[in-house]
Amino acid sequence: MTEPHERPGDGPADRPAGLADGTRCVRAGLPAPVPGQPFLPGPVFAAPYHLDPWAGPAAAPDGYGRPDNPTRRLLEAAIGELEGGDCRVFASGQAAITGLLLTVLRPGDTVVLPSDGYYSVRAFAADTLEGLGVRVVLAPTAGPCPALDGVRLVLLETPANPGLDVADIADVAARAHAAGALVAVDNTTATPLGQRPLDLGADVVVASGTKALTGHSDLLLGYLATRSAELLDAATNWRNVTGSVPGAFDAWLAHRSLATLDLRLGRQTANAEALTGLLAGRTDVTGLRWPGLPGDPAHAVASAQMRRIPGLLAFDLGDAERVARFLDAARLVGAATSFGGLHTTADRRAQWGDDTSPGFVRLSCGVEDPVDLVADVANALDASR
Ligand SMILES: *Cc1c(COP(=O)(O)O)cnc(C)c1O
What we know:
Distance between the termini: 55 Å
CATH architecture of the largest domain: 3-Layer(aba) Sandwich
Mean pLDDT: 95
Order of helices and strands: HHEHEHEEHEHEEHHHEHEHEEEH
Number of domains: 2
CATH class of the largest domain: Alpha Beta
Low-confidence stretches: 1-15
Radius of gyration: 21 Å
Number of strands: 12
Shape: globular
Strand content: 5-15%
CATH superfamily of the largest domain: Type I PLP-dependent aspartate aminotransferase-like (Major domain)
Strand order of the largest sheet: 1-7-6-5-4-2-3
Bound molecules: pyridoxal-5'-phosphate
Number of helices: 12
């Protein structure tokens, strides 16, 4: 289930496989047409599969459900096509990220992690990696890039969740490779339609497929994608022995959802743009961040590096009570964590122990109509003042 990978320079940068995004999403990972068969075959539910009594597991690709599942392989082909690498899916984003860290890092190694990225990764580094004798260096996504001599792995998260700073992937990859370090990029927020880190020089992509990639708020998924056979083998082996695989139904739902990724992201970005128009003009909203805004500190790097800006905003409403009044008054903004779903949601990150200020809100634009959404947010801001 591998495809020939395009390299930078093979074609127009905005059409990595020669086809535009919507087309690639609709077709990604689908088997060749067979009369009488569905476009996307249904999920295959199996723990053991029948074996050939004489040849045993060598006779067929599927022997046991932990390493082998055809529904999962189709999803991996789809995500691999979009990222431009070979993919392995995991039970969650955390399973993919911690799997990569534990596969690559050994006692005495140094890892550089974002100081402003997904908090569970920092918690894992403090609890587990440091306990194993790995030195953890935290660096801000917006830079400056720390000295990388003696570093084994740099993990970037760009745009970073929740602060939405952006790192220059090609620049960090060049510095890291000069120092003999590997570069991993958490591509959760951007999705492979927003940027293809492997084209920008990263060695491996990790991500949560729970968010915008699948976008229906109904499953957990993670993945890793790479062009390195060595990293792919190590990750595959890690997943086989630790068992962090997604179930067949979740893999099938995820693949089904991928077909609309271009449509969903398009509307989410349009909604983010419409909402920033409202929020930027209000004196009762501070700290507005969206990399698509011309004045945003991340705008220059984001517009050079990214093919589209995700529908995720951050701003501050001052205190926890105003955020609660805002969420109570809004009819189209659900109070929920996570992001990238069909429904617009907002999350006061400090309630989860993130080191953000008490009034800091991360708002994830859904696919509602922009006019309705802007009117609802304006009303809720007025009502909560
Ligand atoms: C949500 C998230 C994760 C973790 O993914 P899960 O699927 O929840 O395990 C990792 N990185 C980023 C940037 C995320 O937003």
